[in-house]
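Long-time lurker, finally posting.

We've been working with Peroxidase (Solanum tuberosum) and I want a structural starting point before designing mutants. I don't trust myself to interpret raw outputs, so I'm hoping someone here can both generate the structure tokens and explain anything notable. Sequence follows.
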Amino acid sequence: MTWPLLFLLFSSFAFSHAQLTLDYYAKTCPQFDSIVRDISQQKQTEFPATAAATLRVFFHDCAVDGCDASILIKPTAFNKSELDYDINHSLAGDAFDLITRIKTAVELACPGVVSCADILATATRNLIVITGGPHYKVQLGRKDSLVSNVSNVEAHLTRANATVDLMINKFQSMGFDVKDMVVLIGGGHTIGFVHCKEFAHRIFPTPDPTMNPILVERLRKMCANYTSNNDMSAFLDVISPGNFDNVLFKNLMKGIGVLGSDQLLHSDPRTKPFVELYANNAIAFANDFAQAMEKVSVYQVKIGQQGEVRKRCDSINHI
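Top reply, 14 upvotes:
Generated this for you. Predicted structure of Peroxidase:
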């Protein structure tokens, strides 16, 4: 990336960021915070996988053209949306149900005011806190995207077999450094889950020699019928899957990473120091994750006439 382009990227980033405020809905929708908090807590209590599902949806949204709720738009007969991309087929319904619940309640309290993008960003932060992660500030005032196109996805999301070079390049293209990348992947995967088909090549038919044999045996039993059941999945942190903590990094140091792309973070000299730092220092992990999430949550946000406040989160207003 050239310096002029880098300057333009961060100038645009800074301008958009400046339009957001922490108290954006203080007068127009004072119930916003309590509505999101209460419904997020209720949903997580009912369905403990909600936090992981919502965090993944948030990342998949922000990575593709910014944090604008474009991932929430359902495909139609006339438009293949981001949800049509194969990686996004595995996004869990708990997250979409949560956003729908919150949007319904917010529309009853203050119709036409709160964007779906702000709901997704705030609910994600709340769920991270509920599961034991750090609190961070979420600035508000995002508008919802006017488009969602499947063709926009490929260049931005990485697959489970990605190399470290590819992961670094993807994050750098968004303005994030190696430390940001490692802490965000670790944070996203500490409560995350993945479908068996994404790591089946590591356990069938010949196991990856870098994997812990006990982990291989456990995953083989769990995923024995994955070819006939696409919903079969496993937690990415096999030790404390429901807790937002630094255990995933400890797992990587012991060779018990489920995804090959995760395990590579401990072998590559560019990423290994951060894996070891976060494995040994939970406070450093929490602080760095919070800072990185503040950056992610304002990535290429839409403001003003760049977007709209959707009446329904799954479709743009003029349809």
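Before you design anything, note these points.
The beta strands are 193-195, 233-235.
The longest strand covers residues 193-195.
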